Automatic annotation (TrEMBL):
Pathway: Glycan biosynthesis; trehalose biosynthesis. This is Trehalose 6-phosphate phosphatase. Belongs to the trehalose phosphatase family. It comes from Cocos nucifera. GO terms for biological process: trehalose biosynthetic process. GO terms for molecular function: trehalose-phosphatase activity. Keywords: Hydrolase.
Amino acid sequence: MTKQNVVVPEAMAISVAAVTNSSPLFPYPPPRSGCGSGGAGGVALKKKYLSQLELGGARMNAWVESMKASSPTHAKAAAALAAAPSVGVQDEHATWIMRHPSALNKFEQIISASKGKQIAMFLDYDGTLSPIVDDPDLAIMSDAMRDAVRNLARFFPTAIVSGRCRDKVYNFVRLAELYYAGSHGMDIKGPARGPRYMKAKAKAVFFQPAGEFLPMIHEVYKVLLEKTKSTPGAKVENNKFCVSVHYRCVDEKSWSGLAEQVKSVLKEYPKLRLTQGRKVLEIRPTIKWDKGKALEFLLESLGFADCNDVLPVYIGDDRTDEDAFKVLRDRGQGFGILVSKFPKETNASYSLQEPSEVMDFLLRLVEWKRLSLKARPSV
Ligand SMILES: O=P(O)(O)OC[C@H]1O[C@H](O[C@H]2O[C@H](CO)[C@@H](O)[C@H](O)[C@H]2O)[C@H](O)[C@@H](O)[C@@H]1O
């Protein structure tokens, strides 16, 4: 195993929480953020765990623990919460909600922060605009959600930022007026014409920072298809600049075998790395590009580089969205909104429980904008 394709920090942090059961928070660390590492105790745990990982044998366990923890819907995680003293759990939940209040409850606060600024919307797809389902090909977005997003884009520049390849996510969303960043931001394309309200500010957008990896990703996709076909329920998805290996429908007993299969393939590709999403292993180029970088790139393309008159709002449910939440937090600009029913460590400022709440939030934004335009004195 070469160094390039080991993603110790994410897997390790997840596993520490999962293995030690030190907190009723669902194990969902923001990658590379250092946030929620648990102070000195957390560092000690990480060190201890790192040495376990270095023992080699434990490394696979770490991956499997991490895979188990990768979706808050995991039955055992839910059972663990149910078994924990309910007062403690409730306290933890209340504390978490205080730190990441509902974006619906704090709508006025969000709006008042947007005074004099153009709101720009960034939306993840799976788990945010469409509910999580077993078959990735059936993650259909409702017509009502599509209408909400269509109306949103009439007032605010709107981008979909997804781990799926751009064509696939476009086929689900089917709104030509949006910006799309597929393959975790490695394939960005804007609409033929920028939004009218952006005047001449917005530039034409097309950017593929991982172009040179295309043949390699395609090859790895084919190898993984072959390699994993002995694992019932495993599904390999070609996302153009990255590959997803789904294990949502794989028997838990086979997870470690599947992780082993994937890692044995990756040994041959030191320029690729492995990350995790919700019951999915993601294989992607080692380039320093993620949803956070895509967000910055889009803001610049929209004419908002180094300027204060924009309020970016990013809504997402997954670990990969943490890169974008962190960018907003570091810039001290705009807000991240995490979609989750359960407390998770996050760089987001606000929370929403599920896609239906995301839709309510988008509808309220549209309604607020309509009313504020109506209330404007005519010149
Ligand atoms: O960034 P996203 O738009 O959230 O994409 C992340 C991955 O989403 C999809 O997988 C997830 O949703 C599936 C459908 O609900 C679910 O079956 C799977 O378990 C989830 O991981 C998509 O299929 C992946 O390619 C994306 O990378």
